[in-house]
Amino acid sequence: MPNPQRITERLFQSPSKYIQGPAALHNAPKYLSALGRSPLLAVDNIVYDIAGKALIETLQQADFKVTRGVFAGEASGEEIDRLTSIGRENSCDFVIGLGGGKTIDTAKGVADLLGVQVAILPTTASTDAPCSALSVIYQPTGEFERYSFYDKNPNFVLVDTSVIVKAPPRFLAAGIGDAVATNCEARQCRNSLNFGGALPTEVSVAIGQKCEEILFKYGKQAYEANKAQAVTPAFEAVVEANTLLSGLGFESGGLAAAHAVHNGFTAIHGVHHLMHGEKVAFGTIVQLVLDGESTSEIDRYIELMLSVDLPVTFELLGIPKVTSEDLRKVAELACAPGETIWNMERVITPEIVVSALKGADAAGRDYIARTGWSKSK
Ligand SMILES: [Zn+2]
User: Fold this and answer.
1) In angstroms, what is the span from residue 81 Cα to ligand 1's centroid?
2) Full-prediction pTM beyond 0.85?
C-alpha cells in the first residue's frame, strides 16, 4: 500500500457532466455547445459508419464546424501527435472522442495537447475509460506502455444507449469484466493513493460497492437484453455501472492486482485478440486467489463471469498451452515498478503472481468441472 509521503488528504474527481439515455447522440448539440463550435471528431472508420456520419450531420445542422480525424486503431503517442496536428491545422476548439476505449484514450490525449475541452461519446459499454482523467498508452505494436495523466477529467460524457445496445454483447460483457474488478481492487486501496494522488473518499468506496451490486443483480439480464437489442432498465443500469461507476470507482478508489495482471498479459502473444475487460475479469480471479479468498467467494465471481461468457481459465482465454515461461513474463510485467499491484496488502513477488495465475486457472477449471458449465451459443 504505497503512500511514501504520508499524504492525508482524501480526493474525489469526476467529469463535469454525465448524460445517458436512448437518444443522447441526437440531443448532442444541446450539450456540446457549451464546449465550442469547431470540434475535432476522433472516430475510426467502422464507428464512423455506425454513428459518426449521423453525429456529424446532427452537429452541422446545429452550425458546428466539424473536422473529422480518422483514428487509426492504436492509442499510441504517435497517434495522439498525429491527430493533434490535424486539430491544430483546423483551429479546433474542442475534441470529441466517439468510439471504444482506445479512441477515447486517444481523444483525451489530443485534447490535453491542444489545451481544449473534451467530450467522450462511447459507442460501447466495454471499458471504464470514458470518465477518467487518464489514458492507457500502448506502443504502436499493442504492448502496454504507460498511464498518461491529465489535469482534468473529460468535461462531458454522453452515452447513447440505443447505440450501445447495437454493439455485440461481447462488448457489454467485457465492460462487466472491467467493472467487476472495481470493488475488489478498491478494497485493497483504503490506505493507498488513488489516481488523483490522495486517499479514497467514502463515496469512492460506496461507488465500488454499488457497481458490484448492480452487476450481480442485472449483469446476466442485461447481457441477454443486449442480445435482443433491447434497452431495458437492467441494460441501462449495467451500462451505467460499466461506464460511470466503474470509471469513478477505479480512478478515485484505486486499482490493485486485477489491472496489473491485465497489463502483464500484454507481454505475451495469444491474448491480443481479447478485450481489456476480458483480461481484467481473469485478473480479478487472480487477485481473489492472491488475496486468499474462500472457494465460495471466488465461485460467486466465476459464476457471474461465466454467465456472460467471460474467460475464467487459460483455455477460455485462448492460451490452453501457456508455458510457465510465458506466465513468468506476465507476472514480471504485472510487478513492474509503479504498477498498481503494489497496492495489494499481501506480500507480492513475481513467483507469487505466477502461482496465483495458475491458481485462478485451476479454480476456474474446478468450478466448470463441478457445475458442468458449457459455453452458451
Ligand atoms: Zn479497466
Assistant:
1) 24
2) yes
Q: Given CATH 1.20.1090.10, say whether it is the number of domain 169-370.
A: yes
Burial zone of 23 (CB within 10 Å; 0-12 exposed, 13-18 middle, 19+ buried): exposed
User: In this structure, what DSSP letter does residue 200 have?
Assistant: P
Active site residue 262: yes
Tell me what pLDDT residue 283 has: 98
Radius of gyration (C-alpha) of the chain in whole angstroms: 20
**Residue % of the chain over a pLDDT of 70:** 99
Active site includes 259? yes
CB atoms under 10 Å from CB of 197, counted, come to 11
Which whole number is the average pLDDT over 40-49?
Answer: 97
Q: Is 272 a catalytic residue?
A: no
Q: What is the C-alpha to C-alpha distance for residues 262 and 284, in angstroms, rounded to an integer?
A: 9
Q: Taking the domain 17-164, which CATH number applies?
A: 3.40.50.1970
Q: Which of 259, 291, 326, 361 is catalytic?
A: 259
What distance in angstroms lies between residue 259's CA and the mean position of ligand 1's atoms?
A: 6
Domain boundaries, the chain: 17-164, 169-370
Average pLDDT over residues 155-179: 97
Report helix, strand or coil for 40: strand
Are 281 and 264 in contact by the 8 Å Cβ rule? The answer is no
Query: How high does pLDDT run on average in the chain?
Result: 95
